[in-house]
Structures are given as C-alpha cells and as structure tokens.
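User: What would this chain look like folded?
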Amino acid sequence: MPGAAESIDWHARARALKPRGEAFINGRRVPAQDGATFSSLSPIDGRVLAAVAAGDAPDIDAAVAAARSGFERGDWSRQSPAARKRVLQKFADLVEGARDELALLETLDMGKPISDSLRVDVPATARCLRWYGEAIDKVYGEIAPTAPDTLALVTREPVGVVGAIVPWNFPMIMAAWKIAPVLASGNSLVLKPSEKSPLSALRLAELAVEAGIPPGVFSVVPGFGHTAGKALALHPLVDAIAFTGSTATGKQVMEYAAQSNLKRVSLECGGKSPNIVMADYPDLKRAAQAAAAAIFFNQGEMCSAGSRLLVQEGIREELLAEITALAGGYQPGDPLDPATQLGAMVDETQTRRVLEYIAAGREGGARLVFGGQRVRADSGGCYLEPTVFDGVRPSMRIAREEIFGPVLATLSFRDLEEAIRIGNDVEYGLAAAIWTRDITVAHRAARALRAGTVYINCYDADDLTVPFGGVKQSGSGRDKSLHAFDKYTELKTIWIDLA
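Assistant: Here's the prediction, encoded as structure tokens.
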C-alpha cells in the first residue's frame, strides 16, 4: 500500500523486536555446542541486537549430518518437482507475510535504509523463491542422438549436500539466490551467513520449516569465516560449496575444497566495474543519475557497483558536475526513516577501511570533488558521505582495488580503444557498462569488455531470468536464471543397449 511504510513508527518497532540468535539445525533453534556467542551490533547506533551463536566445526558437523540424513531419507530429495514447487511457493508467501519483520531485521543488522529493505530486499527474496519453485517442474532431461540400437538418457539429479557461504551486503537476497535453486532441485543445504548480518537468514530458516521443508534439509549456522566457514568448506560430506564474498576469501574456499573431497565450487567474488560514458551519449543527466545510483545505492556495498566512472574527454566536467549535484541528495540519514536514501556502513571495520581508501586517493594525487568525511558521529553509528574523486589514474589503488563503499573514482579517456583497455586492466570482471548512441560502438564494447554482465545505456538492470556472475578473479559459475541449476545438479547418462 503506498505510504504504508511512512505511517509506521519504525523506531518503536525496532525497540519491540527481540531477534533470536541461536543456530537453526535439524529443524530447531539450538545454541552453539560450546555455548559461545558473539554480539550482533547495529551500525545504525551501535546497539546490541542479539547474542548470536558462534558456530564452529562441531556445529557444522551436526548441520551437515542432519543434511546428509535428510537427503538420504528422501522426504525432500525424492519428492516430485511439483511437490517441491508447492512448498517453495508457500515459503515465498510466508516471506511476503513477514515483510515488515524481515525488512526491519535487515535494516537493523546491516544498516541499509528501511525503504530499500521493504522495496527491494524482501520482495526480491520472495520472488526468487517463487521463481525457482515455479521453474523446477519445467526442467527436462535429454535423449542423446545415438545409434538406433541404443538409448542414451541424460538426467539431472541433485548433487546432495550443498554448503553456502553468503555475504553481509544483501543478506536475504544473496541467501535466496542459493536457497531457492538448491532446494528446488532436491538438495539439502547448510547456510553460513556473514557474522555481520546473520539475523534474517536465521528467520528464513524458521519460515522454511513452517512452509514444509523437512527438518535437517535446511540449516543455518552463524559464525565466523575462519571457523564455521572454513569447517563447511572443508567438510568431507558436503558435495558442493557456493560462495559469495571477497576474492581473497574465495581463493581460500577453493583451497579448502581441494584439501578435502574435491567438492564442486562456485564463486561470486569481488568487482571493480567500469562505467563508460561516451561523448556522443545525448542525455548526460540520465547517465549521471545512473552513475550516482550505481555507486551510492546500498552505501556502495555492492560487488557490481559502478565504482570506476570512465568519461570521454570533452564531457567530463559537465557529467561530473551533474553527479556531484546528485551526491548531495545521498547524504547519510537515519536508516529507520523511510525518506533516507543512504544508510550506515555495515560496521566500524568497514567504515575505517573505506576511510583508508579515501585517504589513499588523496595521497595518491586524485582530486576530492565531494564528500570523503565521516558524519552523524553523535548517532553512535557508522556513516560516511558519498565521495567523488576526479583526476584518477588507472594505476591508483582507488582505481584498482575493491573499496566496497560509496566512493566513485573518475577517469578520463580519449577513444573507445583506450576506454576498453582501462576497463579491462584490473583483476576483476563482474560487470561493466557503456553509454553511447552508436549501436556499433555499443556492440564492439560489449564484446571487448571482459565482464560477466555488460550494460548498454543503463546500469545494474536486473531480472531473475538472466545469469549473474563474473570472469577473471570475480569468480566462476552463475547465480540466477536456469543456469543456477548447473551448480546444484549432476548430469547422469543412462545407456541402454537395445540390440
């Protein structure tokens, strides 16, 4: 209902909310086996939201054992696709019914504006569950074109037990991108959410069981990466591991998989995406609006953020002036105010990390055009101004390393060849964009840019029907679309001799 969010006293709701922090294993809430906990702190004002179970190897063992038992038992893995569809559709309904609670958990735990949690995160989570539930009974096997005296069937089977490690920037959406295709295809799942934002994933697990997911098939073990995450990636009874997070951690996950049982690994890692604006693009206001949103939305805490703005000589000053004017409208505000567009950074550690990059940009010779300061210090929270740099050289740290904050690095180029060369000259390859009215230039750029997604005259366009993932050190494998099933199913050939 329009205006419904504005009529809610979100501060009162937050005071009344009592999140639970126990792990969710084998269909019920349980403490960590050693009783250890850590405090989930809200970046809004530093309040303690919950004492969260600090899962470790014994807790992962328990969750994986339950997942393996559930898979072998077959009350989920051997259900018909149509039956699994009905459960996932109900799961989506329950997520929509818990919209306000889930949105509030997301905002309190991660710091994003409540309007974004309501408008983006919860609906996208429900839509993902519903889409994969609807898709699974429409995925067919194959009959190979063999000789007439043979029949070769190619079928898809669930891989077994899947471990998923998800990040803190979109806790529910990133979890749903794993949960939905994993469960739809009949697997069991052990999910390790980020220790920075574990609360919504724990609530999703409760809703999954309420929807009809059998106990043990979906467990959530909160904890730290070097303990619970490592134990999950190393576990010999986990058949596949799906990871979203930093490139450095993704490399460790691959090592753990190799050290254990050579489990299947899919990675969606970091990005340093180029957003290229050609001088012939006729609507610089529109390009500026997209460029600002591409780096300031979600506080810049996006792997696909358009963090490098490449502008052709001749329009740089005009475009930069437009973006700078828009940056003023992204001033950090109270995340529980529905009017706020830019919320809090996820925690103190990330805030200091981004400030260090801002300092490095200034020391490296880039010109600070806007922002760059910590603000709202009296709130007790973690707030940074939107920040715009000009005069950035491709060799600078702020042009090469993933900052994961609202910091835009602006670079100039002479022609398309130079823009492509600069755009590709980083270790990442997650996303890229080109703004031009010339269809030939658009297609040349789209083919030449080494990225999993290339946007033309837009940025961060999104739909579940298209795959998402990267090349180079941005990872391997794809989330979203029917291609996600490739990560969580095995192809089996059944050869029949008819001679």
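The mean pLDDT is 97. If you want, I can go into more detail on any region.
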